[in-house]
Amino acid sequence: MKIKTVFNCQKCGYQSPKWLGKCPDCGEWGSLVEEEETLSRREGERGWDFEETTPKTIAQIELDSEQRIKTKIAEFDRVLGGGVVRGSVILVGGDPGIGKSTLLLQVLNQLGSEEVKVLYISGEESVIQTKVRAERINVNSPHLYILTENNLERIIKIVKELKPQILVIDSIQTVYSLDLQSAPGSISQVRDASGKIIFLSKATGISTFLIGHVTKEGAIAGPRVLEHMVDTVLYFEGDRGHPYRILRAVKNRFGSTNEIGVFEMKDTGLTEVLNPSEIFLAGRPEAEPGSVVVPSLEGSRPILIEVQALVSLTSFGIPRRMAMGVDPNRLSLLAAVLERKVGMKLYNQDIFLNIAGGLRISEPAVDLGLVCAVASSLLDKPVDPSTVIFGEVGLAGEVRAISQSETRVKEAEKLGFKRCILPKNNEKRFQAESRLELFGVSSIEEVLGLLFRKGSRERSEKC
Peptide bond before 171: cis, by omega within 30 degrees of 0? Predict the structure, then answer.
């Protein structure tokens, strides 16, 4: 047995044989902490204990007919790509109190009701506290086992004895190994505990969920390599001022990273939102300047969102460009296009933009909706509330085609919209029959003229 002393960066996991004031990797000052690592070599020790260690051709490998375990929570299964893959390791991150433990307890309860043996290990709450939470959200499956434990060696021993099909560790930052002298939550402990749990999961076929703390920057605490080690990384997002929560995959080896799941937080736990469009448009003010409905696409799911813009005369030397739910740089770019290509004077106007409901949208199909919302607020003219708008806007003021226009239009039909303004190239290739009145446009000047009719002369006077 050898004892090795190293200095670990508590920010990024960089290791150095001597102390440094500044981490060469991430640039953080005073983040290197001295830690002792015990390197032991046990006889016969290895990571994965597979029966067959000889190489096989890909044609010789046989797949199990049931590679995924359905959780019976449609939104959760959607994000994972159709269910939990056997032997996979899933890292779940999110702000404190956002509902990570509640969500996974409900998932385990659904799995337990299907006679799947599941184990929930809490390193932060006692079994009594977990029971109180479980009663509040109606979790009472007889196949759900609860354990309070922080020691990694004991956790591995219990898992091997109980042999559950699903394992949840809440949270990975509280787990420590006796082989290391560093404190729980340190870079070394998180890396060592995660590695051994991943090896255990792959060797036994147990699907494992690791709940991770997040830093003030919003990233999962611990070494960055942790996200590379696991199979799937999920972020549970939401605004404290809204009851809605978004489950988003940022990495998924067994499915798409574009899918999202929408939940609503209630007194009895999280409930699925099967029609997010109706929820996010609830309370929308009609005939109000600056409000535009845009059909956005999250993975394979279309969601109608409300884009709100407020344009007002600035009282500062430099006008502000503030955006919530979209990239502020995108807003500045589109404002420059409006000013240069249409002639709107925005150099002395503050622009505030918001995506209602706390959603974050990154796809370019919302560009045309953002432009119309800003123009509507500046002109103080409302957009027809029965109209949806989508399309990408280029620097020349052109409106470019986007993908899956038929899916977006069908979602607008469900909620009773009557008109749709879309790129002209999408209208030409539109094959599905639609009850909506379609208007194809090729430039932002054309779409503004279509929305505000005699707006060209009035725009120049108002601007």
Answer: yes
Cα distance between residue 189 and residue 206, in whole Å: 22
In order of 51, 99, 169, 173, 198, the CA distances from 47 in angstroms are 13, 33, 20, 21, 9
Whole-angstrom distance, CA of residue 443 vs CA of residue 74: 40
| 259 lies in the same domain as 303 | no
DSSP string, 125-147: S-HHHHHHHHHHTT---TTEEEE
Separation CA 10–CA 21 (nearest Å)? 13
Burial of 432 (0-12, 13-18, 19+ CB in 10 A): exposed
267/289 same-domain check: no
Residues 448, 400: one domain? yes
Is 191 in the same domain as 289?
no
In tens, the pLDDT along 213-253 reads 877 666 676 666 788 889 999 999 887 777 889 999 999 99
Model confidence pLDDT, tens digit, residues 414-431: 899 999 999 999 998 887
Write out the DSSP string of 361-383. Answer: ---GGGHHHHHHHHHHHHHT-PP
Strand partners, 313: 349
Question: What is the domain extent for residue 261?
Answer: 68-274
| Amino acid letter for position 409 | V
Whether the CA torsion 315, 370, 327, 358 is positive or negative: it is positive
Question: In this structure, is residue 127 part of a structural domain?
Answer: yes
- Whole-angstrom CA distances from 212 to 9, 94, 167, 201, 379 are 18, 8, 14, 17, 47
Task: Look at residue 111 and tell me if it is in a domain.
Answer: yes
pTM: 0.78
CA–CA separation, 336 vs 309, rounded Å? 16
**How many Å apart are CA 463 and CA 443, to the nearest integer?**
20
Helices then strands, counting H and E runs in the chain, come out as: 13, 23
Q: What is the CATH number of the domain that holds 244?
A: 3.40.50.300
Helix-, strand-, coil-residue percentages of the chain, each rounded to 5 = 30, 30, 40
11: phi > 0 → left, psi -120 to 50 → alpha, else beta; which? Answer: alpha
Strands 269-272 vs 260-266: parallel, antiparallel or unpaired: antiparallel
